[in-house]
Each structure stands twice: as structure tokens, then as C-alpha cells.
Specification:
Blueprint (H helix, E strand, L loop, with lengths): L1 H22 L3 H13 L1 H11 L4 H33 L6 H19 L9 H20 L5
Length: 147
């Protein structure tokens, strides 16, 4: 898995940068939208197959899988990122992004840890967190001037 990630990381970054330059959209926002879709495609497919069975336990398992994947991906990636910034002495310029990730991860983790089964209506606020986190980063960066 690590070798595949290393092999495809550079072409993926080049593609994101090229698309960002062509569309005049900051590369962070392009990466924030497309990278999770690419890296979690297998979980998406298995979640859809579980949900198609339309049984309460299967749909609950789908929500649990999504909650676990989101929480694990965010905490693992954030930990690696913070470790790299610290060990390499890099300039910190990501306060708004980290704030949005921490708030979203805390909310999803608290929600996922508080139940064994999940009603369908809970998917709407959880799905809404994704565009809200992107909007909050844009607001913090562009309106409040966070960096």
C-alpha cells in the first residue's frame, strides 16, 4: 500500500496543481475535494453495496464504516502532517485548515461514539459537514485573514 501511494503521489500532486492553475482555484481546495474521493473509493463502493441491502443493521454498518474512515483518515493525516511540520521546522501556515479538520473530526467522532445504530436522517448533517468545512476554511482565510 505504501509503495502504491508513493508511486502515485507525485502524478496526483501534479494533476491537482495543473487543474488548479487551469481553473484559477487554489490547489488546497481542489485537493480537499478530489483527494478524499480518490483515496476512499473502496470504502465508498463497499458502503454502497451494504446500503443497497436496505436492512437496518447493514445501513448502520455503512454509517459506522464512514464515521470510522473519516475519523481515522483525519486524525492519521493530521498527525503525520503535524509531525512533519515539527520535525522539519516548517513554517506554520495552516491554522484555518487544522481548525476545520479538528472541529469536523470531533463532531463526527462524538456522534459515531454515542450510538450503536444510526438513523438515516443523521447522514444529512454529517454530509453537510464536508461543504461546511470547505466554506469555513474559505471564510477563515479570506474574510478573517487566518493563515
Amino acid at each position: 500500500g505504501s509503495l502504491l501511494a508513493a508511486a502515485f503521489a507525485d502524478p496526483l500532486v501534479n494533476s491537482i496543481n495543473g487543474f488548479a492553475q487551469a481553473s484559477q482555484i487554489p490547489p488546497f481546495f481542489i485537493a480537499f475535494v478530489f483527494t478524499p474521493l480518490a483515496s476512499n473509493a473502496s470504502e465508498l463502493v463497499s458502503s454502497i453495496s451494504f446500503a443497497q441491502k436496505k436492512r437496518k443493521r447493514n445501513i448502520s454498518l455503512t454509517f459506522s464504516q464512514i464515521y470510522g474512515a473519516v475519523t481515522m483518515n483525519n486524525t492519521l493525516c493530521l498527525g503525520i502532517f503535524l509531525g512533519l511540520v515539527y520535525t522539519r521546522g516548517l513554517t506554520w501556515d495552516f491554522s484555518s485548515e487544522v481548525t476545520a479538520i479538528l472541529i469536523t473530526t470531533f463532531f463526527v467522532g462524538a456522534l459515531g461514539g454515542s450510538r450503536m445504530t444510526f438513523p438515516s436522517w443523521l447522514s444529512l448533517p454529517v454530509l453537510a459537514l464536508y461543504p461546511l468545512s470547505i466554506a469555513s476554511i474559505a471564510f477563515l482565510d479570506n474574510v478573517l485573514g487566518w493563515h
